[in-house]
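Can anyone check this?
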Amino acid sequence: MRNPDQLSQDELLGIVRAIQCRLYLDRDDQGAESWNPDKQWSGADVCQDLASVLDQHGLVPEREEPYIERSAATENRYVLYDFDVGDLATTHVYSSYEEGAEDASELNNVMVVALSVPHDANKAPDEVDEKCDCQQPGHFCCGVPGILAHLENNRLAPDCQVERCDLCELYPSDQAALEKLIELGMA
């Protein structure tokens, strides 16, 4: 199962858009699509729709496994714990639950234990990812890396100029940045 912090900005925006549509996109009396804050829905249908959205993005667990609360700054690693000796069964650290479970199945009284590890723990100080200024909170942070634009209600504000970030240069031009916002349904 993927973790939300492994998703791209585009994937996160797509999930939120899908949730909005399933909850509030309706048809008016003429059959045209319209936003309806009072749209009626069935709890079971909404749950099934939302589960489908999560499944499309690999966010549904494949099997039952322990829940470990994680922050965006951590990732899980796994070790094997031996009940008989009350200590680790191995010094090997697994990057996935599945890897640990495979080895644990060959041993007696051993379980897979999850550890939360800071993302940057294995990186040298000069490799630590830092967000560009365009991603820092502020009036022109639109939530899309590399684009500076002011949003109102998750849409481009009227008469707002869209600019690419000249620091990270993720887009070749202001026009390309605008086209990306249009593609994402934000303009």
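Reply from J.R.: I decoded it. The radius of gyration is 22 Å.
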